[in-house]
## 1
Amino acid sequence: MALNAPIGVFDSGLGGISVVQEIRREMPNEHIVYFGDSANAPYGTKTPEEVRRLSFAIVERFINMGVKAIVIACNTATSAAVNDLRATYDLPIISMEPALKVACDRGHGEPQHVIVAATPLTLREKKFTALMNRFSATNTIYRQPCPDLVEIVEHDQLEDHDLVMRTLHGYFDGYDLNAIDSVVLGCTHFVFYRDYFRELLPATTAIIDGNEGTARHLHDLLASAGKLASSDSEGSVTLKNSDTSERMTALAAKRLNS
Ligand code: DGL
């Protein structure tokens, strides 16, 4: 496989572009092909079978393009499909799960109160329950589905401050936020809301996402396989989407440059 072959990154829509931003920072020499499945978004309210079928179709496209690795920049598609994808395809597949370990480790042994914000599918799947079981004996963990936060990004309403804050209050006003040590952004769309979460949460509550860890993991994996792009290669990002409208093309570019 050529070192300068692209890395395929995909998500149900625009959320995974937040992961692309991090990969660019970590690995500016790499060529990235991003596929957002906005025509089929959201994934988080679909059945695991539907999400698996859609994920396989995207990975097939990437294989036909000759990618050297795939990043599932979607916690939901990871929950539904990563095991089957890895069993089927013989190339590195990097996936994402809510960064609950990072949130709990911050306590250095002190019990933590953590809210995991993610899609309904991620929070109900076996994968997340298994992750939660590793930490729930010593920490208090709340699952908070936030499906509307996906729709707001897909509908280009992220700059609507009132709408976003109203939506966040709807999801989080039931908590005593002063008692929450961290909020985990367990959906790649939610990473675009970091400043809004900062406005909502007390200064003592940490906001944690898995994007940086994912980019680092991708780097280490390619480095150990000797597959990093050469250091004189000028990296690039190609944005593709199942919604081929001009509106979506412009919106994807706007998110990448945000
Ligand atoms: N961005 C996705 C994730 O990380 C899911 C969004 C959706 O529901 O489509 O889980």
Note: Residues 48-65 form the longest helix (18 residues).
## 2
Amino acid sequence: MSQKPWDGRFSEQTDRAVEAFTSSIAVDRRLYTYDIDGSIAHSRTLARAGILTEKEADELVFGLETVRGEIESGTFEYSDSLEDIHMHIEDRLSTHVGGLAKKLHTARSRNDQVALDTRLYVRDQCGKIIGHLTGLCKAFTDLAEKYIDVVMPGYTHLQRAQPVLFSHHMMAYFEMFSRDAARFEDCLKRVDVLPLGSAALAGTTYPLDRAYTAELLGFSSVSDNSMDAVSDRDFILEFLSCAAICMTHLSRISEELVIWSSAEFAFVDLPDAFCTGSSIMPQKKNPDIPELVRGKAGRVFGSLTAMLTLMKSLPLAYNRDMQEDKPPLMDAVDTVRACLDIYIRMLPKIVVNQSITEAAAGRGYLNATDMADYLVEKGMPFREAHGVVGKAVAYALGEKKELHELALDELRFFSGLIEEDVFPALSVRKMIDRRTTHGGTSAKNVADAIARARKRFP
Ligand code: ARG
């Protein structure tokens, strides 16, 4: 049973069950390095305000660095009776600098302290995740470049629609993940605000130079309202929203890889080193990585939902409920980072079965739109052309043939505008190359997209 900082007001010791119930050390110990950075900056700010001497600040900084060393070397002891990482560090600091440690908490509350630690953590994690996303964007660009000319069916409703380049499909994911990176960059702007100096909720009577603290900790700005600074966690909500959207994108490529690696599709082979087998069926090779990533998306959505629910209707300012912000936040960080990392490792090893994807693009009437476009070029209004080709498809289905396998005479039965030159227009290559509007699947467009991607993430 340790002394509590609030002992003065209390006539009973805290119940052990209450200590265990209220303790957050198992989770917030991960914030130790930010807590120490924050306390170092606070010591310097107190000295600048004349509340500590420079010598006292130096001593505190030395003591705090010693504690950091102890934590990093694994000799630090944790206990529920000290509740959280803030009290652990202050308690240990007193064994190094004695009574001076008691001065560190001047002009500070755990409310602005924990807001600071969490912002520093989220700021770091945004940077790390942006790094992973950059790696992933490069991996998609590499894959697009490697299979630049491979044709595959493009789908809507998971029904074959029109041929596309596999590289175009990969660059679609590049776009999604590069927007995810931009979203985290944007989130970072609102995370990057110093809350320290807000104290418990109303600000402090001490003349703290908050701009100086912000400079020491590398923050771009200082919070403008003390009550907001200690009581909002919208920067976590925003971070988790970015994480949830990113997981949605990962779940989509995952679903596609699961489908494409099935015997029914056989579009891609996943690397053996990234699959597992079955304990009973010797022939099995399962796409565990995409499956798990697909599943883990739900976990990150859960974090976002938990956090929204946690903050909903909370009165200002700090409420203890908010201690529950860290488990969902940290779980989402770990999950997103692990998923991005494994994808960066797996993607370069995916093998595309070109002959199968190309054959698939040649069957299933994927050239019906192009045949309608052909008729439009010959002067027929599109709606009418759509009807003509629809009838031709119905006929071809009956004949068990593709449109381009019908004889010219058979095609001319549907429209006299059809001539010999229809056949090249119906070839897969022609269909791809004609889609030249900006953002379309022509080989030239995809090459340009890859060049833009290389510029963005060199
Ligand atoms: N462990 C607490 C949290 O994470 C620190 C702040 C505690 N503040 C308080 N007034 N009890 O929110």
Note: The domain at 13-106 is CATH 1.10.275.10 (Fumarase C; Chain B, domain 1).
